[in-house]
Amino acid sequence: MPELMVVAKGLDNVVVDDTALSRVDGEKGELIYRGYDIDELAGCSFEQVCHLFMYGELPSKEHEKEMRTNLQKRYAIPQEIVDFICRRAQSDHPMATLRTSVSMLSCCIEEAPLNDSAALISMALDLIAKTGTIAAAINRVRLNKNPVAPNVSFGYSKNFIYMCNGEIPEDIAVKTMDTAMVLHIDHGFNASTFTARVVTSSLSDMISAVTAAIGSLKGPLHGGANTAVMEMLLEIGSLENVKPWVEKALSEKKKIMGFGRRIYRVSDPRAKHLKRMSQEWGERAHEKKWFQMSEAIERLMLEKKNINANVDFYSASTYYMMGIEPKMYTPIFAVARMVGWTAHVMEQLKDNRLMRPEAHYVGPLGKIYK
Ligand code: COA
Q1: Closest Cα to residue 98, out of 337, 261, 335?
Q2: CA of 334 to the centre of ligand 1 (A)
Q3: Helix axes 117-142, 61-72, angle to 10 degrees
């Protein structure tokens, strides 16, 4: 390795490429999707923001309807994937079932030529539409229930909750899911998005890229944190136990899930929306405990470590109050992030160069084989 080369462990502060999809400003605590502040978009539907990522602009009413129809006609998944989910979802990690199921989509989604933008968008919409159906089916089987076929007259979030519960959801649940999905769609070159772009850079296909991205999202340092947050809240169990539990964990140098970010020096701009929804759902359900415990942990983390809550922290108690099983939180993250991943795959292809970093070899040299 040349002398001036430094090892950028974790690629900290390394700028890998340009992107026009999202900008994370860690100093200001700002997240921008294609020019729009996340606070502007938090009230939008999933379809509107999906259109923004696929076509670069927020849609007119007519184009939003077109996007909804385009997704609706793609909701269905092949029987062989449903059969696979029925066989594996109870025993395997839901992200493992999701990863394999999404990979299996190559049995029904034709591989788009890498220079055909329209075919790539169509493939992206297929992946976005079908990932929701796959995740909902995994949820059903884990609950020992039969998967529910999609309702093609429902919008994305409404259909997703409907397929999870088998009941037509209330408007407030649809609104919450829309907001949660929108907040999770993209976040710069996070680990899973970077993974998707690395796979794409070898001119592999979109399904391979997003399958690898799901593998990356599964880890507790990335998307897996939301599940870990709820497991932590359940383990703590009561408001009184928050302080001793957190203090003990910190004294043992444990990471508190749902806190910290490589990039933000201030609050994660998505967290406040999720915090509001967590509080609202607690009040609706007359079960304020999880929100109160979360707030107490947030205060302690600021006081003891000056570390803010991230997107995963309040999404956990929000989903819990909506009646969703904790292990499903990361698959829900994947459903939303599929929009970002596929958009990044297409952006990477527009100006591609193989991603091939160097390694600093620290092993032995000069060994002789006799
Ligand atoms: N709980 C307690 N301490 C934390 C912490 C957390 N969640 N996150 C960071 N820290 C502390 C570390 O202990 C370290 O302190 P030290 O310098 O005294 O050793 C310092 O902050 C830097 O942490 P580090 O792990 O090096 O930061 P990173 O940029 O590599 O990691 C995360 C970023 C997100 C992986 C890390 O904050 C984390 O593991 N968070 C919990 C998992 C999580 O919520 N992930 C979802 C991210 S959206």
Answers
A1: 335
A2: 22
A3: 60
For ligand 1, mutation pick of 216, 245, 255, 302 (most atoms within 8 Å of CB):
255
The finding on whether 255 has its CB within 6 A of some atom of ligand 1 is: yes
Residue 9 lies in a domain: no
Domain shared by 63 and 192, yes or no: yes
Domain match, 99 and 194 both: yes
Do residues 177 and 250 share a domain? Answer: no
Q: Closest residue (by CA) to atom 16 of ligand 1? A: 253
User: In CATH, what number is assigned to the domain containing residue 70?
Assistant: 1.10.580.10
* Token output for 96: 């493992």
The answer to whether 150 and 160 are in contact (CB under 8 A) is no
Question: Is the CB of 26 inside a 6 Å radius of any atom of ligand 1?
Answer: no
Return the residue matching tokens 């390394």. 14
**Domain that includes residue 258, residue range:** 225-321
Q: Are residues 50 and 192 in the same domain?
A: yes
The strand ranges marked E within the chain are 22-25, 30-33, 36-37
pLDDT in tens for each of the 370 residues of the chain?
555 678 999 998 899 999 999 999 999 999 999 999 999 999 999 999 999 999 999 999 999 999 999 999 999 999 999 999 999 999 999 999 999 999 999 999 999 999 999 999 999 999 999 999 999 999 999 999 999 999 999 999 999 999 999 999 999 999 999 999 999 999 999 999 999 999 999 999 999 999 999 999 999 899 999 999 999 999 999 999 999 999 999 999 999 999 987 888 888 999 999 999 999 999 999 999 999 999 999 999 999 999 999 999 999 999 999 999 999 999 999 999 999 999 999 999 999 999 999 999 999 999 999 8
Mapped onto helix, strand or coil, the DSSP state of residue 126 is helix
| Ligand 1 and 104: CB distance under 6 A | no
